[in-house]
Design brief:
22% strand, 9-stranded mixed sheet, 33% helix, 6-stranded mixed sheet, Protein-Tyrosine Phosphatase, Chain A, Udp-n-acetylmuramoylalanyl-d-glutamate--2,6- Diaminopimelate Ligase, Chain: A, domain 1, single chain, 448 residues, alpha/beta
């Protein structure tokens, strides 16, 4: 960070109170955590549902902050910049800082596959530029109006590319993030039911996701799933921008011609590339197609794209294969869950040549139709003929009640684990999945 306090005051359109001589000083870093503050850093107070960051401004100054950006005047606090909203101030700084860089940025949104697609693109770019240090990747769930700006504030002059996720719970969030990031390439992986309780319909989700194109550069490229049911809506939102489509069918710009012995022959506008996608599931093949399309938009050679995708490792908690109890195969898909990702995980388990055990927890943020969505998962399990199903969670009971075969529901994970331990054998394949709040990784830990 190479901004003076006075430059920053102008960026956030705030009023400064304090020692005027400090306005010429350079800010070293920006943090929203008062405990992480070091000398000459800037602290920004963020209001959350359960806390008010302004309450930690005094502590930040005591720890060495040059100044504190706050939205409510704390009379006894020295060296403060008063703004209307701390979150918006953070966004303005990130937008400014990103605009000073010359890096190319890929933004990804979608109901499923964001993180895996991000990791694939990041791997491709690392091979292209021959350095991890020159590619900025947003970490973990840093994909909201706090996490994304914080990621962008880590941009260094030496970096050439950035790959970031954009998540949302409400209309307008993606538009806000896209304006801040101003991407060169914007990817929509798919439209599903994730967070549907905040929207009237899947179409409402599609419209909100399509906002990613609003901040796309004039010469930017939109990457869209050709087989998504809201393809037309997405292409209309990306009007006047170049579009590259991906999908399994031949009407997509980037598509699979055939797959032989695990090697996919993929046709692209730049020619044919043969790729072995090591991650399980058809949905991960689609993620690879999205990554290829985005990389082509950045003019990355096909040879580099192949290397990048084939070197990708398992993303933690996303169909991550582990050695389980008694030497069984355990598939850890505990990062999160919604109807589409649950079906994709069931597909992966159904294709395994072993004794299958499915362990599931509730899917969250599904609104009024939550019970209906869980019942439909029961029907999908029956369709895939998975006989051993174990579940916990109030909503998961709807799944179990609609399952055929040996399906059991437990009130708590401890009892569930005790039961599963009696079922697992060497030739078992166990898949564990549930929404974040269910903490199904506790089951994985007990079985590995």
């Amino acid at each position: 960070m190479e901004l003076t306090l006075n430059q920053l005051r102008k960026i956030v359109a705030g009023k400064y109170y304090g020692d005027a001589s400090l306005l010429k000083k350079t800010i070293k870093n920006i943090s929203i955590n008062s405990n992480a503050i070091k000398k000459n850093d800037l602290f920004i107070g963020i209001k959350g549902e359960k806390f008010n960051g302004d309450d930690f401004a005094k502590s930040a100054i005591k720890n060495g902050a040059l100044a504190a950006v706050i939205s409510c005047d704390i009379k006894e606090l020295e060296n403060k910049i008063i703004v209307k909203n701390g979150r918006e101030a953070l966004g303005k700084i990130a937008q400014y800082w990103k605009a000073q860089s010359k890096l190319h940025l890929v933004a990804i949104t979608g109901s499923n596959g964001k993180t895996t697609t991000k990791e694939m693109i990041g791997s491709i770019l690392t091979f292209h530029i021959k350095s991890k240090l020159k590619v900025l990747m947003s970490q973990g769930n840093f994909n909201n109006d706090i996490g994304l700006p914080l990621s962008l504030l880590n941009i260094k002059k030496t970096q050439k590319y950035a790959v970031v996720e954009m998540g949302m719970n409400h209309k307008g969030e993606i538009k806000y993030l896209s304006k801040i990031a101003n991407p060169d390439v914007a990817v929509v992986t798919n439209i599903g039911e994730a967070h549907i309780k905040f929207f009237d319909s899947k179409e409402g989700i599609a419209k909100a996701k399509s906002e990613i194109f609003s901040g796309l550069k004039d010469n930017g490229v939109a990457v869209i799933n050709r087989e998504d049911e809201f393809y037309s809506l997405l292409t209309i939102a990306a009007r006047r921008k170049k579009i590259i489509t991906f999908g399994l069918s031949s009407n997509s710009d980037v598509h699979v011609k055939k797959t032989i012995q695990g090697i996919s022959h993929i046709k692209t506008p730049k020619g044919l590339v043969e790729v072995k996608v090591k991650l399980e599931g058809e949905h991960n093949l689609k993620n690879a197609l999205a990554a290829i399309a985005a990389s082509l938009a950045l003019k990355i050679p096909l040879k580099t794209i192949k290397k990048g995708i084939e070197s990708i490792k398992f993303v933690h908690g996303r169909l991550e294969i582990k050695k389980g109890l008694h030497g069984c195969i355990l598939i850890d898909d505990t990062y999160n869950a919604n109807p589409a990702s649950m079906q994709a995980a069931i597909d992966v388990l159904a294709n395994q040549d072993c004794e299958k055990i499915l362990i599931i927890g509730d899917m969250g943020e599904l609104g009024k139709k939550a019970a209906e969505y869980h019942k439909s998962i029961g029907a999908y399990i029956n369709k895939n003929k998975i006989s051993d199903v174990v579940g916990t969670g109030k909503l998961t009971k709807y799944v179990i009640d609609n399952c055929q075969g040996n399906a059991k529901w437990f009130e708590d994970k401890k009892t569930l684990i005790q039961y599963v331990k009696t079922k697992v054998k060497k030739n078992s394949c166990v898949l564990v999945k549930g929404s974040r709040f269910m903490k199904m990784e506790e089951v994985v830990d007990a079985l590995t």
